């Protein structure tokens, strides 16, 4: 039954392939210190909704925001009974790209906070977006576009997607720049996206071979310290442009990743097993109910009763032991387990049992 919705993903590397086919650019393996996004957040109001906004009695923060906004515009609404349903309080989030200059535009995401049913047709009012330091880095405003919708009548409702989350394309203008003088740095750090000792050493060796001097040194599995050579002083952009195109063969830890919820299994190419025998069997119990209705004869003094009838069947599907040889490759391991005719759910249990027996030379990571 689980085979209908379970996907087993196997990453298999053929030994006959040349080593160059497995290389990657340094650009795809590391992040450069300082070249990063910054997260922004803000609180605002979306107006113009067609009766799908917050219920003010259930969302006091929306009521207070409306009153504060109207007071700033010279309208006093204190003590009045507000009953509008065309306004929704929202949280506005955005990512500030690295080296963004003043006046550039970025996208913002809008998410309802109260009990608004939909943000369709709404307009985000001016919303300051602050960073982790509390400073305003951008200001957002614009029409909200949503991907979902909701339609309802007196007896039915249809909802598709999430109509309470929307996006304003180019909806924020950058007002403050994040200062970072990369060209003045005497050394930079490269952070590996997948920390590994072997990969870090190979990247440093490739950089040193290109520069012709020992300028790169791995300080830990996830960091490489790069001293700027004399000929690249004041022009680190040119240095990084040359380095990021170098190709390196990354290494990885033998790992089996298992997602218990969805049944997804991912195996690395370096997964190996020692000699082990595997047997698998399933016990299937089927219970069927067929109630029978018993009625009295015409004009008889009786009553109609329901007589339950239950049928129970138990069947055990057992398979013999299958031997998995020592040091087999991932392809041979998959073929041997598939020969048992088992599904991904049983495969998860078998892999965990092989690991418990000490025969699986890999790390198992369960989500």
From TrEMBL:
Quaternary structure and interacting proteins, as annotated: The basal body constitutes a major portion of the flagellar organelle and consists of four rings (L,P,S, and M) mounted on a central rod.
Gene Ontology biological process terms from the UniProt entry: bacterial-type flagellum-dependent cell motility
Functional summary from the UniProt entry: Assembles around the rod to form the L-ring and probably protects the motor/basal body from shearing forces during rotation.
Taxonomy of the source species: Bacteria, Pseudomonadati, Pseudomonadota, Alphaproteobacteria, Hyphomicrobiales
Protein name: Flagellar P-ring protein
UniProt signal peptide: 1-21
Family note: Belongs to the FlgI family.
A Pfam family of this chain: FlgI
